[in-house]
UniProtKB/TrEMBL annotation:
Keyword Transmembrane helix: no
One example GO MF annotation: arylformamidase activity
Every Alpha/beta hydrolase fold-3 domain range: 2-182
Protein known as: Alpha/beta hydrolase fold-3 domain-containing protein
Alphabetically ordered keywords of this record: Hydrolase
Amino acid sequence: IFVFIHGGYWQARSRHDSGFMAKTMSDAQILTAVIDYPIAPQVTIDEIVACIEESFVKVLQWAKELSTKVYICGHSAGAHLASTLLLIDWETKYNIEPEIFGGFFLISGIYNLTPLVPTYINEPLGMTVTIAKNHSPLYRDSKDYWSALKSVPIFCICAEYDPTSFHDQNEQYGSYLKQIGYDNITIKKLDDCDHFDIMEQLIERDQPLTNIILSFIENSA
């Protein structure tokens, strides 16, 4: 099952405009689940993260029933939300074994939220520096991460024409995961694409990002 979490700085977009990869996945005999979540200012970042966990539990239980693996992909703020799934002990909390996790594809993600606090982006979110740090995977201690996923493949990918801050955070987060013991990390930059059209590649089979994801899933399923 390919699970997608959309971006939009936690305050825009929905599942209704985020299922564009479903046909590509279906053609490759892969199921797609697009996770929706309430957005700011109606909810806080704490509530959004909790909602992602609640929704993802249902996907994991579905995968368990089907005896299949789950591959998680998030874009921008969605990559941040996907990365928070690494901080949950799914076995203790939900009786979900780590083997069900096939891999993570974190695309142009945000892993340090503190630079956003003084910006307009934070106006609907209302994060303090403390809240932003708590929800920043780059600030979370290694003991906060579920050790059972230390060997799960994680792809940290950004676009050539992403803003510099996205390049930096992509490199920093991939390096941090390696530093705390994750042993299957790929840090990659895709050429000739920007922050938005990197995801649009998934509409077609013969595109760089599509090839990375499908080749990996097909070889690991």
